[in-house]
Amino acid sequence: RLAETARLHVEGLSVALGPAVLRQDVWEVYDILDRAQTAFDGQRLRLTIVADERGRVLAATDPRRAPVGAEVAGFGAAAVAPHQVRMTGDPILNVSAQLAVQGRTVGHIVTELDVTDLLAERRQAAIWLLVGNALATALLTFAGWLAVTRILRPVGTLVRAMDDSRGTPRPVGEAEIPRSDPGLSRLIDTYNRMTTAVEERAEAERRLSERERFVSLGRLSSSLAHEINNPLGGLLNAADTIRTYSDRPEVVRQSAELMQRGLQHLRDVTRAILDQNRLDRAGQPLRPEDFEDLRLLFEAEAHRRAQMLDWRIEAAEKVLAQQPAAPLLHSTKLFTI
User: Fold this and answer.
1) What is the mean pLDDT of the segment spanning 161-165?
2) CATH number of 2-114
3) HEC per residue, the chain
4) 250-283: per-residue pLDDT in tens?
5) Domain residue ranges in the chain
6) What is the pLDDT of residues 24-39, one digit of tens each?
């Protein structure tokens, strides 16, 4: 827009001023400049200088700034051709062109254009452009955030399901699976199948453990019945023999020895079972309840012997807690309470 304005102004003046400059008619040049400034946008055209071919001023729209006979080089130093006019941020632009008549250069034209209003318009346009870009960027950022949030929502659901499992995988509900996204839906379906497989494996391990426990219990019961049944048969036979031959001391003695061996065998079996299956209490503290168990055992023997049992626990519970409930293995240290 600015380059077109400068070109039209300079070309129009060149056509009108060429003959007058060739004749060195200063008053006609002034008249043409005055009519051109009246017809042109006077607010933009600040100064127009017409010089002869020697570079001396013939006429100007402001004679005080450019008197007749002055060198025009001082005004056209920063001037450019009309087709090279560009907005540089300077409110005053200088335009220079040659005056030619029939191919002969007869002078020069230097014009100062005031582009303050154009700079203001460009500045306002830049501000609106920045504001528009900022709003568009904010809107696009918000839309992108919404889109990313919607895309990552199933992933967040999957992460929460894995975090809340606490060691046991929890499947994702059917309502939370994004069927519109084939990739994520396949991922969550795979995870659900994995959780189902883990649950089935845990259930199978639990059933196998119970089965093994029942098998072990059955084997133990069978072995225990066998170990008890054999001496028990001998004890029953010995009891029948004593009852039948009670008048024969030798037979009674032999039967009593047989019964003693059978009872010792039963005692050994019982001890072996207790040693194998009892809880290890060596690392547990001694409690008053342990003494109450002893009291129940002693009361039966004291009642059988027609004796009185005076049972008191004088040690404090804190003192008892410092002692083990059972002696340590491979230790001969005795504790006295």
Assistant:
1) 65
2) 3.30.450.20
3) CHHHHHHHHHHHHHHHHHHHHHHCCHHHHHHHHHHHHHHCCCCCEEEEEEEECCCEEEEECCCCCCCCCCECHHHHCCCECHHHCCCCCCCEEEEEEEEEECCEEEEEEEEEEECHHHHHHHHHHHHHHHHHHHHHHHHHHHHHHHHHHHHHHHHHHHHHHHHCCCCCCCCCCHHHCCCCCHHHHHHHHHHHHHHHHHHHHHHHHHHHHHHHHHHHHHHHHHHHHHHHHHHHHHHHHHHHHHHHCCCCHHHHHHHHHHHHHHHHHHHHHHHHHHHHHCCCCCCCECCHHHHHHHHHHHHHHHHHCCCCCCCCCCCCHHHHHCCECCCCCCCCCCCCC
4) 888 888 888 888 888 888 877 777 666 554 555 5
5) 2-114, 282-337
6) 777 887 887 777 777 6
